[in-house]
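Researcher: I'd like a structural prediction for the single chain below. Treat it as a standalone chain; there are no partners to consider.
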Amino acid sequence: MLLETSSSEPKYQRWFEAHSSICGTNYVRRIDPRRIGLHEITDIIMETTDGYLDLFELKRPDLSVLRLDQSRSIYYFSREASQAIGQAANYVVRTEENRHMLAQREKLFFLKPRARVVIGRSNSWQQPLRDALRILNGSLHFIEVWTYDDVLAMADQMMGMYEGTAKGCLAEQTMPGEPDTPEDEIPF
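Model: Treating it as a single chain, here is the predicted structure.
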C-alpha cells in the first residue's frame, strides 16, 4: 500500500500518521495540530527524543528525486524535489517567525526545526546516485531528502534491532570471549 504510485499525497499522510514510528527511533510521537502559520499546514510534526519538533513533508513515491546534467556529469535535485525542498524551507522559516505564537496558542515549542522531505524511490539506484543524494543533502541546512526506500530501510533496521539481526546491532558487536554486560553495568 505504501508504494502504490497511483495514490494521492493525503493517502501517504494518513499512512504515516497511523505508522509514525516508521520515521525512526529519534522520534517519540506525532504532534497535532499541524498548522504552523496563518496559511501553512505541514504534513507531519514529530517530537524528537530530546523534546524538539521536526517537520515532515510527504510527496508521492513516483516523483523523481534526482536528474543528471549530462554536459557536466553531475546530479541535481529534480523539479519536484526542489519544489518540496522549497516548501519545507518555507515551513522552517514560518515556524521560526511564529515561534512565540505557536508556543502560546498551540503549546508547540519550535527551536531550529529540521525538515524531512520524503519523495521518490531509490531501490534501483546505483552507488553514484546514492552518493549524489548524500552530497546534495549535505548542502541543505536543517533539511534532508529521504526516499520511500530510505524509510523502508530504516523500518527494516528497526525491526532487525528488535530481532537482533540488524546491521551493526549490539547483538552482532559482542566480541568473541567478551562477557555480555548487564544493562545496569553500562558505564554511561
